Structure formats: C-alpha cells, structure tokens
DNA sequence: TGGGGATGT
DNA sequence: ACATCCC
C-alpha cells in the first residue's frame, strides 16, 4: 500500500502556526524577489490564481489580503519537524518535496485508521494540517490525496481502492490535467484525442500512447490501473544534475557582481555534491536577461566547462565556473538571473588518480577531502556560508527582494515568538 | 514575472 | 547545446 502525505496549504499553514491572527484570513506567499503568488490559504484561492505575479493583483483585492515573502528558513524547519514525526511511525518513506512524502504501509488492514491517528499527532505537535491519500500506486495515491483534501467527511485520509465500486466514478470525475505527471501541454494533446478524465486515460492502450508520447505516459496509464511502475526512491538515489540559480533583486551587467554570484552558486553546488557523496565532471554556467522585457535585446548564454577529473572541491568548481563566466559574459546586456549546473555526476569512488595532473595526487586529494569536510562541518554547525571563499557585500543590489518577511520563529534566537502573559 | 529537476531532439 | 515538460 502506498500513501501520499501532503501538508495542506503548507506555507500558509506555517505562517499561521506562529501568527494566529492569520487564521481564517486570505493570505498568499510570494516567490523569491516577491514575484509571484506560489501558495495560498483556502480563503485566498477564489481571488488570486496560482502563480499570478504580485503586480498584477488588482488593488481592490490587494487591499483586503495579506501577502508575505517566502520564508524558506521557517518552512524548511517546519518540514523537518513534520517528517521526523512521520518517520517515527512509518519506516519506509520518500521525501518528495518540502511538503509531500510517499509512504510505504505494510499493514493494509488498518492503514486508514493508522493514518488518521498519525495525522492527529502531526497536527498536535506542529500545528500543520496534513492529508493522506492511500492506494496501490503513487499515481493513485496522489488522486486519493485530492479526494481526502476536498471531501471533509474523510478526516483527511482516503483510501482509493481499485476493487471498490466507487473507483470508476472517482476517476471519471478526475480531470487528466490534475493527474501526477500530466501537465498543461500533455493535457491539451490528450484533450484533442478526446481524453479528458483519468478514467478515459486508464482505459487507453498504454503501449500505443507510450510510443506516441513517452515512457512516462505509459507508466502513468499502468499506474492508473493499480500496477505499480514508479517505486519509492530511497535517499540513496543520486541526482544526475544539480542546479543552483537565482533571479536578482535588480538586474546587473557588472562583471564583478556576476563573479560574486557565480562564486556563491558554485560553492553551493559543490556543497550539494558532497552531501550526496558524488563528484562532477563538468560545470555549466548560464546567464539570462529578463525574458519579460520584450523590447530589450535578449541573451541567454550557457557554457559547459569540463573538469580535468571528477571533483567536488569548492575551489576547483569555482575556478571552472568563473572561467565559464568570462567566456559567455558580454557587457551590453542587463542580466536578471545567473546559475550553475553540476553535470556528469558520478559516485565518490570514481575519484581516480590522474597521472597528468599534479593537483590530483593521492596527497592532494586527501588534503582536499579534509579541507572540504572541515568546511562543511563548520558551516553545518555555525550556519550556512559562515566560512566561504571570498567576501560578498550583503547589501549588493542583486540580493533578493523580501519586503514582507515574517520572523524565522524556529531557527533564530532573536526571532523567537514572544508570548505576553496578561 | 520562482527554483529545481528529468528527458527529448 | 539547447528545448520541452513537469512539480
């Protein structure tokens, strides 16, 4: 039995857990740089569609609602609290996103009751409401989760049983657009073929549509029939690419700004590599101008710099990234975004010696490992970027815009919630 | 007017 | 070296 646990309106619920005044209010959380609405409380949903840019919200609506900058430090910590409880009660879990986890439930008989109890504990300990969908496959568990959220009769847990008579009618009412793995583009194509509901897709020729679209489509159809094709992924599955990027608060064409930015992303990328015990064989650097400025000329360059040997050493990754930056930078453009990607990732055991390199001797390799480990340990203990390569002004104009940030209630001593006894 | 991925051509 | 698709 597969479960999908999903926190309800997660970001909004995190804000409410520490600010009860927001209870029952229409609130929205904004993306980085206070750009788009990326999370909404139920009360906001009728007024503001998902993903709407903040500047497009009509003023008379804006007056009546609360918009907050995203506070990932808070959400990340609350996420850990929720899932550490989940993992106390369920051994086999896959953390799928900041607010979702797939669960593998051994005992089919009492799964629903067990999940109802788990849900209560999570709410009691964290203040976060969650919904749990149960079924035979991940794709069906996702649908079950929608049912659990929509229908208040179920106490937040619903078991979608393919053998139950209700199964067909639930899938008949479920639009293809909302199926996990079917997005806007695909649902338009399916709609043109006359396929509009999950039930219709379930009854299609999986092999034929697999050829027409992709293996992903084929698996989705089989999963809709209750045949598991997508396993739970353990923490051991290595990422094949690692990207870190960010849009700027203000566009810039200053080369030194871009060097700072690329260095920060390269350091972060190297950290991510080390945290999954892998090495990259190439680093890709990219820049982007603002794609919404139709009039100004656009430039979206990228370049992949091969590394001499697989590495996760911050210094070498920074070197490569800055070489790449130098080669793609042109001063006549205003850049809005920059980032790096780690490519051709391999396991740490692939760190073979290279006879052509005097920086990859056994001795140098050991020293690099010790240095990086020390760096990671200090930053883990003292806070991200406590120790870094090169200094960066914290007032730089390209820094994130976050004008409506709430307190980081759970991770900063000076931002703890204050209780007043009257 | 977001960030992070996988996969296709 | 992109482009497309998805969450």
From TrEMBL:
The record ties this protein, via SUPFAM superfamilies, to: DNA/RNA polymerases (SSF56672)
CDD domains listed in its UniProt record: PolY_Pol_V_umuC
So what does this one do? Poorly processive, error-prone DNA polymerase involved in untargeted mutagenesis. Copies undamaged DNA at stalled replication forks, which arise in vivo from mismatched or misaligned primer ends. These misaligned primers can be extended by PolIV. Exhibits no 3'-5' exonuclease (proofreading) activity. May be involved in translesional synthesis, in conjunction with the beta clamp from PolIII.
Per UniProt, subunit arrangement is: Monomer.
Q: What is this protein called?
A: DNA-directed DNA polymerase
Query: Has keyword DNA damage?
Result: yes
Q: Which family does it belong to?
A: Belongs to the DNA polymerase type-Y family.
Query: What Gene3D superfamilies does the record point to?
Result: 3.30.70.270, 3.40.1170.60, 5' to 3' exonuclease, C-terminal subdomain, DNA polymerase, Y-family, little finger domain
Q: What InterPro entries does the annotation carry? A: DNA/RNA_pol_sf, DNA_pol_Y-fam_lit_finger_sf, DNA_pol_Y-fam_little_finger, DNA_polymerase-Y, DUF4113, Rev_trsase/Diguanyl_cyclase, UmuC
Q: Which Pfam families match?
A: DUF4113, IMS, IMS_C
* All copies of domain UmuC, residue ranges: 2-183
> Native species of this protein?
Commensalibacter oyaizuii
């Amino acid at each position: 039995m597969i479960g999908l646990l999903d926190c309800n309106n997660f970001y909004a619920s995190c804000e409410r857990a520490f600010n009860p005044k927001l209870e029952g209010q229409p609130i929205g959380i904004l993306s980085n740089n206070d750009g788009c609405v990326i999370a909404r409380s139920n009360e906001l949903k009728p007024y503001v569609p998902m993903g709407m840019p903040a500047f497009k919200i009509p003023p008379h609506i804006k007056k009546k609602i609360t918009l907050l900058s995203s506070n990932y430090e808070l959400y990340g910590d609350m996420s850990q609290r929720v899932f550490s409880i989940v993992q106390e009660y369920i051994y086999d879990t896959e953390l799928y996103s900041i607010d979702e986890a797939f669960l593998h439930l051994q005992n089919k008989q009492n799964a629903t009751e067990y999940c109802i109890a788990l849900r209560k504990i999570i709410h009691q300990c964290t203040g976060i409401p969650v919904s749990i969908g149960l079924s035979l496959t991940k794709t069906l568990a996702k649908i079950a989760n929608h049912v659990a959220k929509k229908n208040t009769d179920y106490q937040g847990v619903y078991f979608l049983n393919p053998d139950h008579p209700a199964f067909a009618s639930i899938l008949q009412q479920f639009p293809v657009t909302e199926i996990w793995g079917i997005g806007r583009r695909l649902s338009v194509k399916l709609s043109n073929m006359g396929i509009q509901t999950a039930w219709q897709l379930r009854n299609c020729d999986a092999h034929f549509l697999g050829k027409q679209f992709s293996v992903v489509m084929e698996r989705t159809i089989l999963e809709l029939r209750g045949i598991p094709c997508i396993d739970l992924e353990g923490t051991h599955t290595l990422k094949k690419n690692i990207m870190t990027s960010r849009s700027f608060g203000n566009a810039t064409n200053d080369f030194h700004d871009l060097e700072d930015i690329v260095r920060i992303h390269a350091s972060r990328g190297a950290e991510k590599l080390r945290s999954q015990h892998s090495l990259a064989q190439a680093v890709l650097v990219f820049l982007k101008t603002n794609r919404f400025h139709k009039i100004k000329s656009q430039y979206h360059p990228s370049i992949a710099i091969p590394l001499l040997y697989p590495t996760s050493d911050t210094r070498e990754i920074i070197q490569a990234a800055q070489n790449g930056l130098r080669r793609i930078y042109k001063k006549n453009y205003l850049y809005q975004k920059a980032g790096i990607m780690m490519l051709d990732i391999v396991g740490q055991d692939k760190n073979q010696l290279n006879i052509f390199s005097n920086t990859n001797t056994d001795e140098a390799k050991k020293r690099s490992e010790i240095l990086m480990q020390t760096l990671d340990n200090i930053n883990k203990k003292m806070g991200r970027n406590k120790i870094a390569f090169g200094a960066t002004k914290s007032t730089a104009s390209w820094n994130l815009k976050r004008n409506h940030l709430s307190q980081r209630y759970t991770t900063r001593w000076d931002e703890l919630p204050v209780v007043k006894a009257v």
